[in-house]
Specification:
By secondary structure, the protein is of the alpha/beta class. Helix content is 43%, strand content 16%. Helix 3 packs across helix 5, helix 4 packs antiparallel against helix 6 and helix 5 crosses helix 6.
């Protein structure tokens, strides 16, 4: 039985349940895969999803210095291949645009990838259009295989246009998870319809139905429980959320739980201390999905104040919003990227402008004080997300794309 190579930046990663979900879904549809990762895991936990995936994992050297002998063997092998001149020309053209050590590292990873790729792998499929795609593309050309991609968020919006155009036009096909992404990437493609919309969706079997009884907490006698799940990075907007929370009336009782690691964790904790919020916030750090589900079940309002980062990075269609909605938790978020494709303002949740703490504070106050509205929005959200955002249609389409090459 032949396999496809699924390329990821790191594996397993807590923040990429959508990729693990896709891998497991492909396996269940009879698509055999080999996972190829550019780095080993850094997270302290794994999800139960990862335990269910049976695929073999091949780790490439994250840096050349990690295993210079392995890289040298691969480069010597590559130089003897009939595909070498054409593949090296692709790298040289990219290096002319981006003469960096990082670009050299991707060529080294591509050589190792191609050298060690098992013969039963007939296709290369890479998640993200930035660094994993560079290594995967070089490996595809060196090994004489075709390749395709799945694009998401940061990889699109922080990559230079020349790099995106080069990769899109070189790939056999591509998919991406939002209509916003499709429109942008299609405009960079020389081939109409090369990039398709494919929502990741959610496998709802692991998520409980909305609670039968509604919370009546309104911030007057016991704290309304706020929760958010997301990495502590600029695009998640947690700095705006802290400012918004500081502007709520002192008489309003609330408690906020944050789940997720990230580079801004300590800075956010310091900001919370400065704003006098620390005794109302529980910073839990990275947690497995089971803990995320439990936290959402015990919460009244899910908040994700996403915004555009200075680098251009932004969210795509955050799985955590779908997860919270599927359990009937009312969601408050922002009009960024594809979030309005998921949350219909005042119908299945509430949206505010990104980067607007004052507007966010007003929405928070209104929802904290109105449990009946939270319940109505949460129930409507659960019904819509379970109807329109199931993972099955997208996985069926993806599996259908791979079967002809297996």
């Amino acid at each position: 039985m032949s396999r496809i190579a699924v390329v990821v930046k790191g594996y397993p990663r807590l923040s990429e349940t959508f990729i693990a979900q896709e891998m497991l879904g492909l396996e269940r549809r009879g698509i055999e895969i080999l996972i190829v990762a550019l780095r080993r895991p850094y997270d302290p936990y794994i999800h139960d999803l990862h335990r269910q995936i049976s695929a073999e994992v091949m780790y490439l050297p994250e840096y050349v210095k990690d295993d210079p002998a392995r890289v040298a063997r691969a480069k010597r092998w590559a130089e003897k291949q009939p595909t070498y001149s054409a593949a090296k020309a692709l790298f040289d053209a990219d290096f002319a645009h981006q003469p960096t050590a990082d670009r050299r590292r991707r060529w080294a990873q591509g050589c190792v990838f191609a050298h060690e790729l098992p013969k039963d792998v007939t296709w290369i499929y890479t998640h993200y259009l930035h660094t994993p795609c560079s290594a995967a593309r070089y490996a595809a050309h060196l090994s004489g295989r075709k390749w395709s991609f799945s694009a998401h968020a940061k990889d699109i919006w922080t990559s230079p246009v020349w790099d995106l155009e080069t990769k899109i036009n070189d790939a056999a096909w591509g998919v991406t998870c939002t209509r916003v992404n499709v429109d942008y990437l299609s405009g960079l493609s020389a081939t109409p319809d090369k990039v398709e919309l494919l929502y990741h969706g959610l496998d709802f079997s692991g998520f409980p139905d909305p609670a039968a009884t509604a919370s009546t907490r309104d911030g007057s006698s016991e704290p309304v429980r706020l929760v958010s799940v997301g990495r502590a990075v600029e695009k998640k907007g947690y700095d705006d959320l802290l400012v918004a929370l500081s502007r709520l009336p002192k008489s309003l009782d609330w408690q906020f739980t944050h789940i997720g690691g990230g580079e801004l964790s300590e800075a956010l904790k310091a900001t919370a201390e400065r704003l006098g919020l620390s005794d109302r916030i529980d910073w839990r750090g990275a947690q497995p999905r089971e803990e995320v589900i439990a936290a959402c079940q015990h919460s009244d309002l899910f908040v994700l104040p996403s915004k555009l980062a200075k680098t251009g990075d932004r969210d795509g269609l955050p799985n955590v919003l779908m997860e919270a909605q599927s359990m009937g938790v009312c969601c408050l978020s922002t009009e960024v990227s594809a979030i309005p494709e998921l949350i219909l303002h005042d119908e299945t949740g509430v949206l505010v402008q990104p980067g607007a703490p004052e507007e966010l504070a007003e929405a928070l106050q209104a929802l904290i004080k109105d449990p009946e509205r939270r319940r109505a929005l949460g129930v409507a959200a659960a019904k819509r997300v379970r109807t329109h955002f199931s993972t099955d249609p997208g996985l069926d389409r993806l599996a259908a794309k791979f079967r002809p090459v297996l």
